[in-house]
Write a structure and sequence with these properties.
Length: about 240
């Protein structure tokens, strides 16, 4: 696997931070290529329970059985000699987790670069209040903790991508949630902003695939696989089509 081979490293885990709503996970492909196990936070069961009825996906387990390992808050596991601590950091979604390894923490979409802020909290099961508390928990880590992010959208005045910052930088300068921003102020601002955001372009494919750990639906009788698009029809149309 490219970089891993060059380093003489073996890929043991694909660690999901959450069920992504804007892109499809490549976990099954990576697993097939490397034999890696796929892990995610145990509250993925909640995400499955929310979305299985939306797409009427009766094959979804509701128990997270599609994943190799479900991580509980405060749980530990090993990657080679490294100890990994799991932190449940809900808010963006109810199942978000962060992974802390020594002085590094991988926070998924819980926080973005200081000049951009943090993730939206308006997906089903999301909560701006929970997000604030998760962020404060992350910002209580030692100040020199290196923080690695899932997404970067650049920011006004910055035309290069970034993916790493520190707890100290976030506390001092995160535009939405630096030290001194109260929970109520954050929640009000986050909810106002989220109300103006469009749904992610790949929302429908992403959710129905990612709650199955990235597996696509089984083939239908014609041999093709299909994703579902829920339709919401006006009542008068509902009767005639
Ligand atoms: Fe996300």
């Amino acid at each position: 696997m490219g970089e891993a081979d060059k380093l003489g490293a073996r890929i043991e885990w694909v660690l999901e931070t959450h069920v992504h709503a804007d892109h499809l996970t490549a976990a099954p492909w990576l697993k097939a290529k490397t034999g890696a196990k796929v892990g995610i936070g145990e509250h993925v069961t909640q995400v499955q329970s929310i979305f299985r009825p939306v797409f009427d996906l009766c094959e979804v387990s509701l128990k997270g059985a599609e994943f190799d390992r479900l991580f509980a808050d405060g749980g530990h596991f090993a990657i080679g000699n490294l100890d990994v601590e799991v932190l449940h950091t809900p808010g963006h979604t109810p199942a978000c987790v962060s992974y802390r390894i020594g002085d590094a923490v991988f926070v998924g979409d819980t926080m973005f670069m200081p000049d951009y802020g943090c993730a939206r909290a308006d997906f089903p099961g999301g909560s701006a209040r929970a997000l604030y508390r998760s962020i404060r928990r992350l910002l209580a880590l030692p100040r020199d903790t290196r923080m690695f992010l899932c997404h970067d959208y650049k920011a006004p005045g910055r035309d290069y991508f970034a993916w790493e910052t520190t707890v100290a930088e976030q506390r001092a300068g995160n535009v939405q949630v630096h030290d001194g921003v109260s929970e109520d102020a954050f929640v009000a601002a986050r909810e106002k902003r989220d109300a103006q955001l469009a749904a992610p372009e790949l929302l429908l494919p992403s959710i129905q695939v990612n709650i199955r750990a990235g597996r696509f639906p089984r083939a239908e009788l014609n041999g093709a696989r299909f994703l579902r698009i829920p339709l919401k029809l006006a009542p008068e149309l509902d009767k005639v089509v």
